[in-house]
Amino acid sequence: MIGDIAIIALGSNLGDTARSVLEAMDRLQQLATAPLLRSALWQTTPVDCPPGSPPFVNAVVGLRPDPGETPESLLKKLQALERALGRQAKKVQNEPRPIDLDLIAFGRQVRHSHDLVLPHPRAHQRRFVLEPLSEIAPNLVLPGQTQTVRELLQNLPPDSGVRRTLNQFVPLPRSFYEPSARVVARQLLGHWLVRNTPDGPAGGWIVETEAYLADDPACHAARGLTDRNRVMFGPPGHAYVYLIYGYHFCINAVCQPPGTAEAVLIRAVETMTGQPFLFRQRRVSNERDLTNGPAKLCEAMAIDRKLDGADLCDPRSPLIIAENPQATAFRRLRGPVVRTVRVGITRAAELDLRFYLEGSLFVSRRPTLT
Predict the structure, then answer these.
(1) Residue 2 pLDDT more than 60?
(2) I need a surface site. Which of 173, 193, 240, 367 has the fewest CB within 10 A?
């Protein structure tokens, strides 16, 4: 339940602002007992800051803390993280800073001390908090309020100084996909599969893949070029989307230079952003069930044959695979990387071309102990 989690607002207007916020999100994940709820990044005009202050990049996350965590202990961890990310003692009120972490709410708890006020006394009036918060918890009612986040937002005056930025997700370059799918399948782990939607980006970390090779009897291209597999024979870095069982879809990333048909099947994604969109597309009660399988993730992310051939390397594309600068750290966090046989095939079933992150709860299937 959203009411059981801590709501944290992030902001940065000094240095590489977007990267600072994304790195802070990754660090906050280490304090959580479940995947963070993450908003998109928003660019905002400074409020109550010194004249000439640069614009902010803002975001909001929902963090499920340890059972013994208190608002006070979490606040100390946020302050320590601010220092670790370069924030220094302020000399001027609201001066530019590389990172700002504000505890907005902690479940239904209320505090009125010198060091901590919960919920944050101005959160319900701040569009730069409510806009990203509405992406992850539109129906949340903050303690002391009678309206949902969405309703509070609708009652605020328009503000053109708060807008979503699309620059947070930078696609992997086409050269990333030029090696064999055997190589790319492992390297994709920890990067982001992102569906660009009218509601903002939706998707998350890739945590399970399978490679299909040119000389592989299980590969769709094994029998040559067809209308169905034509994209596989084209340039790398494009989406190959196909229909299975007459109803479900699967998404693959094409590898190797044109003429050599290989691809990586994306089997599972650990959700990171755009959860409201994902839940609307796939009606389940458990977040893990949104994307813990190749057909499931396609349903949740609205991926179908219309996206066959989509350029995964074009930031304007409706579907991209974005570079996670912390992919190596994420693989360590969710590791180890397991290499094993592929799922649900009869040809070349002995080949160990499936890769997944053992520590991710979103992996579709694990070996059965006998």
Answers:
(1) no
(2) 367
